Amino acid sequence: TQLLEQSPQFLSIQEGENLTVYCNSSSVFSSLQWYRQEPGEGPVLLVTVVTGGEVKKLKRLTFQFGDARKDSSLHITAAQPGDTGLYLCAGGDGGSNYKLTFGKGTLLTVNP
Amino acid sequence: GAGVSQSPRYKVAKRGQDVALRCDPISGHVSLFWYQQALGQGPEFLTYFQNEAQLDKSGLPSDRFFAERPEGSVSTLKIQRTQQEDSAVYLCASSPWRGRGEWGPLNEQFFGPGTRLTVL
Lengths: 112, 120
Known about the structure:
Order of helices and strands of chain A: EEEEEEEEEEE
Largest sheet of chain A: 6 strands, mixed
Oligomer: heterodimer
Strand content of chain B: over 45%
């Protein structure tokens, strides 16, 4: 069974601070996705990374896929209260396997 | 356009009762998934449909769980004789992936808001 460990589990910061959350596994994933989930809603896809070493930027969010495709990080610059939510990483093992393996998530609170 | 909708949004059941949870996917989406998200956890895969065919039910935790999608659109997840450990948010997701070729990273799954099931 492929497992994804996310850290930290909880993070509370002030508006304007920078932060990084991590997603690690002992398994290789063909792709890795980051989602944000707000209370009472389903996860919403932020980005998919595919290539080892890949870096993608989405406004103030920077996503990186590790060279060995076993880990990923999400960095947020100048966090805003609207960034508050549960950040989930999910791995896919490619081929015809459509099942996503999710981590437990990082619950981020950005205080004004 | 409308996203994935689920009903009811909240369901309280007494232990031993049967429940039925409904999912309306995005129109035209071939693939449909059900996930279970326990408190403080990430979603866990339950089952997958391609049109009306249930191609994978490996994640269903017991034979009390049953899912169907008879006309390849709306899907229902049924839980018989509910137990307290069934308490969770049940998420439905749909995707335009047509089941041909590899599942690629661009075949995004669109999630509904979930049904929060509480078993007393």
